[in-house]
Design goal:
7 helices
Length: about 180
């Protein structure tokens, strides 16, 4: 019962998401010098999934907050994943990136937010009215799972669009695990 509830809810969110976002996001990724990904809590974990797959796809990617993350510069792309677009720490990251001339993308459940107002692009996952309380899916679960699937679909688009063989991706996979 709960599996079906989750599948139906996420399907509804993804059906309400602009189906051109994968092409638009791929264009932004391809035109960035480097890519930085930030989120908080479970959204950060979703960002980590995406960062790993981007590395497998041959992109230069850093996760914000890691000790080895370099400084962001003009020409770089900061991708913020935030359901609300109002997380204080992520607002601070956005301001810093904007100050140096980096491009900023917000992936969010909301079209209007503090981060969205500063971003060069906002990719709204679903529609705000679809994010009411769902029994068994508390505190952002719907956004996080929908965003994870959206980003995995974007990776599928990248792989298909560029003809990246799985063997090539496997060569880029971490071998110190």
């Amino acid at each position: 019962m709960h599996q079906q509830l989750i599948i139906e809810k996420i399907s509804g969110i993804l059906e309400a998401t602009d189906d051109t976002y994968d092409v638009k996001l791929t264009h932004l990724l391809d035109n960035a010098k480097r890519i930085f990904i930030a989120g908080a809590g479970r959204s950060k974990l979703v960002g980590n999934f995406f960062a790993m797959r981007l590395v497998h796809g041959g992109y230069d990617v850093s996760v914000v907050g890691e000790i080895v993350t370099p400084s962001i510069k003009s020409g770089d792309l900061l991708i913020i994943i935030s359901g609300s677009g109002e997380t204080e720490q992520l607002i601070a990251f956005t301001k810093s990136a904007k100050k140096v001339g980096a491009n900023i993308v917000l992936i969010s459940a909301k079209n209007d937010s503090t981060i969205g107002d500063m971003a060069d692009a906002v990719f709204q996952i679903g529609r705000s009215d679809l994010y009411g309380k769902v029994l068994g899916m508390p505190m952002g679960t719907v956004f996080e799972l929908s965003t994870l699937l959206f980003l995995e679909a974007t990776i599928a688009h990248v792989i298909h669009d560029k003809g990246i063989a799985e063997e090539v991706m496997r060569e880029r996979h971490a071998n110190l695990e």
